[in-house]
Amino acid sequence: MKLSDFKALTFDVYGTLLDWEGGMITGLKPLTDRVSRNLTRDDILEAHAFYESTAQRYSPAKKYYELLPVVYRRLAEEWGVEVTWEECEAYGMSARHWHAFDDTIEALTYLKKHFKLVVLTNTDNLTFSGANTRLGVHFDGVYTAEDVGSYKPADRNFDYMLEMLARQGIEKTDILHTAESMFHDHAPANKFGLANCWIYRRHDKEGFGATMNPGEMPTYNFRFNSMMDMAKAHQAELAG
C-alpha cells in the first residue's frame, strides 16, 4: 500500500491540523491559574477529555462552542474554582482562534495538488469557519458534528461522510483517513474498513492527552509524526 494509491484524504482537524491541546491549555489558563493544587499539563488535558467525551455522548446535538462552556464549568467544579457563565462561554468561543501546527499549511498546500482534501470534524460550522482561515487551503468537503448531529467516534459521522463522498464518485477504497486521535478517528476507521494514517502529534509524550484512551489500540496503515512528514513521504514515492 502506498500513499499515492488514494484519491482523497479525510482529516480530523483539531489535534491533527490545529494545535488542539495548546489551544486548550491557553484557553483554560484563566481557570487553571486559580486552582490551589498543582496540575500537570496532562492532568488538565485528561480531565478535559473525560468531561468533553461525556458531554458529547449525552448531548450529541449541542454545538461545540456550546459544549465547551459545559466542560469548563465541570472542570471548575472539580478543581474548586468559582467561575461565571460568561467566562465559560468565552472558552467556548476561543476554539475558533486556536492555531495551526507549524507544518500544517505547507503540508496541506502540497497535498492539495495530489488529493481531494476533506474534513470530518467534531466542531460546529461557526467554530470551523474561524479555524479554516488558519489552514490555508480550500477543502473539497467539510462535514461537521453540527451537520451530522453527533460526535465522533459515533458511526453516524462516518456513515454521513462516506455517503457524501460516494455522491462525488469517491469510494471507500479511494479514501485515506488521516488523524491523530485513536479514540475519535482510528477506532471507527478500523470498524468501517477505511485505510488510515496516524499523525502522531504526541510522539514525544506519554498517554493520550486530550483524547480518551481507546482501550485496545486500533491498527493503522501509515504513521507519521507530522503532516509535513506525510507530505515528504508522498513526494518520495513519486520520485521513485
Automatic annotation (TrEMBL):
GO molecular function, one term: hydrolase activity, acting on acid halide bonds, in C-halide compounds
Keyword annotations: Hydrolase
InterPro entries: 2-HAD, HAD-like_sf, HAD-SF_hydro_IA, HAD_sf, S-2-haloacid_dehalogenase
Protein's name according to its UniProt entry: Haloacid dehalogenase, type II
Species per Swiss-Prot/TrEMBL record: marine sediment metagenome
